[in-house]
Sequence to fold (124 residues):
Amino acid sequence: QVQLVESGGGLVQAGGSLRLSCAASGLTFSAYAMGWFRQAPGKEREFVAAIGRSGSLTYYADSVKGRFIISRDNAKFTVTLQMNSLKPEDTAVYSCAADVDRELAVYAGSYDYWGQGTQVTVSS
Fold:
């Protein structure tokens, strides 16, 4: 049974930082590209960042480029999203996802497995 479990969310002031982690189990982690998505209340889910199977390829949404960093540890089955210079508009539920078919994917429909999400709230 595949499980993706996010942690690290919380409340932070604008300009602050948070580090999200996603722990994977039940899959051959190094065979999956990983991504982070977010969904704010009343809005559609949006792509945040993706990382390839080996970690050498990354891709970011324009809205987070230069502020967020995605990384992975294939030995520990984890993917991390370091979020810096947070803004109130970054407030959302953040979810990680795993995709076995592509090296990188920005579309939610490409992903095979999803975590439940962790809430990030940025106060102004």
About this structure: The chain has no helices and eleven strands. Residues 43 and 92 are 9 Å apart (CA to CA). The longest strand covers residues 18-25. The chain has a mean pLDDT of 97.
